[in-house]
Every structure is written in C-alpha cells, then in structure tokens.
Amino acid sequence: PGQGFSIYSLAALLPLLPAKQRMTDPHDWMSTDADIACPDPNCPTRFRITRTGRRRFRRSDVTAL
Predict the structure, then answer these.
(1) Quick one: which of 39, 41, 53, 65 is 20 to 30 A from 8 by CA?
(2) Percentage of residues in the chain with pLDDT exceeding 70?
C-alpha cells in the first residue's frame, strides 16, 4: 500500500490476466506461477495473481448473437 508501480509492470501483468482466468491443467505453469515481476531489472515491483473464486461465464450474457 502506498507504493507506485511502473507502466512496464502493468504491461507485464495485463496479458496474463485472461489466461489466469481460464481453467488450466494442474501441471500447467499458469496454474502454479502466481508472482509476476516487472521486466525492468531496476524495478522492485511484484504482483501476485490469486484466484478468489470461480463462476460460469455465459456468452449470451454479454452479446446479442
């Protein structure tokens, strides 16, 4: 809390969020690796992605097709 993060940290994190939301094999690295580091070696930022629950997504809820 109270700490900032760089745009590079956010750029490293955002592409992984949709993949972390999907169900994966328990042995897939996406299931086991939760810590995301900033790609800048001088940046100490670390993010942890933790699944807090599951829900069913229905395409019909978000589209008219």
Answers:
(1) 53
(2) 97
Closest CA relative to residue 43, chosen from 1, 11, 19 = 11
Q: In the chain, what are the domain boundaries?
A: 7-52
Q: Which amino acid is at 60?
A: S
Task: Summarize the confidence of residues 38-52 as an average pLDDT.
Answer: 85
Q: Average pLDDT for residues 15-38, to the nearest whole number? A: 84
Is beta strand 35-37 parallel, antiparallel or unpaired with respect to 46-48? antiparallel
Quote the tokens at residue 24.
């994966």
CA angle 34, 39, 43 (to 5 degrees): 100
Q: What predicted TM-score, i.e. pTM, was given to this entire model?
A: 0.63
